[in-house]
Model the fold of this input.
Amino acid sequence: MRTRSTKMVDMPAKTCVVCGIGLAEQHGRARPYVYCSISCRRLAENRVRRLSRTLERIDDELLVLDRQINGHDFRGSEVGRQQLIKKAEYLRTQRDDAERELVRYDSPDAEVSA
Done:
């Protein structure tokens, strides 16, 4: 005889990942609600697409910058090199922020600090 899982008992009240509105209580074994409406689900899908494109762009820029900084054919001054390093650090920070926001939509149950 199977017993019901009590995993959901200790979890806090669920809210929509996008707007924060409380979600309807679920009964049974259905997949847990994540969004309160189709429009919130679509907003999240669009944000995920935008964040994915942003991450791709940042990764491409970082690849070019790393080649310029570490390349043997760097012809600029040390000041120019330091500017490239600062730009790369800024892009890494932007990438980390975008990845944190993306995790919010990939795994809504994960705690995300704003």
About this structure: The chain has one domain: 7-106.
